[in-house]
Write a structure and sequence with these properties.
alpha+beta; Alpha-Beta Plaits; Chitinase A, domain 3; Trigger factor, domain 2; 3 domains; 4-stranded antiparallel β-sheet; elongated
Length: about 450
């Protein structure tokens, strides 16, 4: 096959390949493909494979032509890309210019290419690590959180105290109007029946529950609350709400005794062993948090050290992935579909920025892996798949089959490669140990 190739630069990361395959190769492809069809053809009056060539050509002319075109263009395209040493990203856009028996095949392929850039210095990237340790107070706080998972609520005939649950009915207004007139989607803020709110906790609107202190079942109170400036319902952000509240029930939280019997609920032999297990978990979380913080700083430093053009298709594909993730996370948080729709421009803008950084990082990771000869082994990808299968409680074989169906194995490969390159960058980073930043207002003390 004689292939003539010319390359034109259309834009950064975009090229046009003009490819020509000589007449001899085209005719040979038609001849060999026709013979293959003859072997398989089954025509009335002839045994399979014995039909005359002319009859096979007449019946399967279109199929033969399509098969020749597919094979010739595929082979010629791959040869052209290899010959010109082009790093292609994604799939080509093929335009047929000339094709048929007795004439040269000519086609054009518009392709996106990997960006060309000079790797910045990636060894010795600076990062700060907060020096922390797990204290006895941290362990006790975590054990108390475990106890809260077994909390019981008992209705009591007394006034509300800090830590109690107030079961309330309420209706809300803002600027003297029903809340739904100002924010039609905020039906849950306009009216609720048998709504649970903890006194002393900021789990609802700031200051709402505190104004119920001392109330008993059957009491009614007028409550005001400020909607935060960053409130999810923008029509209410920064405004003041007024609520007519009726206390239906007062419920006291009853926590289990923290003793050896409690420890056994978590598979520990006794309370001492439970505390030791909790400490190990907290130390692992701390180590993970420190590693994540260091790697985030390394990635930021790497991204800031070089700029280059990115393939449009890769950015568009990653943007769609990020938009999907943002919408899914908002939906899981209970954000209404119409609220998400109103924010679609902001979501898309944020997704595009994130996508560009992800695509840029992927090319940097790939180049560093090549430079440092960091390779991903098949068993490493399989281990990652098994870990994910266990996390999602899916049989490993089924998880792998699902991955293969949606071409997700390469995604796992990329994840493992990024993990190995980031570990390499962390090992070669210039890490400075610093004291923890002071806790902000309202932060829980250590």
């Amino acid at each position: 096959m004689i292939v003539n190739v010319t390359v034109e630069n259309l834009a950064p990361c975009k090229k046009l390949l003009r490819v020509e395959v000589d007449v001899k190769a085209v005719d040979e492809a038609f001849d060999s493909t026709t013979k293959e069809f003859q072997k398989q053809a089954s025509l009335p009056g002839f045994r399979p494979g014995k039909a005359p060539r002319a009859m096979v050509l007449k019946k399967y002319q279109t199929d033969i032509k399509d098969e020749v075109k597919r094979k010739l263009i595929g082979d010629a395209y791959r040869k052209a890309v290899d010959e010109k040493k082009i790093a292609v990203v994604g799939y080509p856009d093929i335009e047929e210019i000339q094709f048929g028996p007795g004439q040269a095949l000519q086609f054009a392929a518009t392709i996106e290419t990997a960006p060309e850039f000079q790797l910045p210095d990636y060894k010795g990237l600076p990062a700060k690590r907060e020096v922390k340790s797990v204290t006895d107070e941290d362990v006790e706080r975590a054990v108390k959180l475990l106890a809260h998972q077994h909390v019981k609520f008992e209705t009591v005939a007394r006034e509300l105290r800090l830590g109690d649950i107030a079961v309330v009915n309420y209706t809300g207004t803002c600027d003297g109007k029903p809340i739904t007139e100002i924010a039609p989607t905020a039906k849950g803020l306009a009216e609720q029946k048998n709504f649970w709110v903890e006194v002393g906790a900021e789990t609802f609107l700031p200051g709402f529950a505190d104004q119920l202190l001392g109330a008993r079942a059957g009491d009614k109170r007028a409550v005001t609350a400020d909607f935060p400036a960053d409130f999810a319902t923008k029509e209410l952000a920064g405004k003041k709400g007024s609520f007519d509240v009726e206390v239906v029930e007062v419920k006291e939280k009853l926590l289990p005794a923290i003793d050896d019997g409690f420890a056994k609920k978590y598979g520990a032999e006794n309370l001492e062993k439970l505390r030791a297990g909790v400490r190990r978990d907290l130390e692992n979380e701390l180590k993970y948090s420190q590693t994540k913080g260091i790697r985030n700083q390394i990635v930021r430093g790497l991204l800031d050290r070089v700029n280059f053009d990115l393939p449009e298709t890769a950015v568009a594909h990653e943007t769609r992935n990020v938009v999907y993730d943002i919408v899914r996370e908002n939906s899981q948080r209970g954000v209404a579909r119409d609220v998400i729709e109103k924010q679609k421009d902001e979501i898309y803008s944020a997704a595009t920025r994130s996508a560009k950084e992800r695509v840029k990082l992927s090319f940097l990771i790939q180049r560093i892996a090549e430079q440092e000869n960091i390779k991903v082994l098949q068993e490493e990808v399989l281990r990652r798949a098994q870990t994910l299968a266990a996390m999602y409680q899916i049989p490993p074989d089924k998880f792998l089959k699902d991955l293969q169906k949606r071409n997700g194995v390469m995604e796992l490969y990329d994840q493992v490669a990024q993990e190995k390159v980031l570990a390499f960058l962390e090992q070669n980073a210039r890490i400075e140990d610093v004291s923890p930043a002071p806790a902000g207002p309202g932060a829980a003390p250590n």
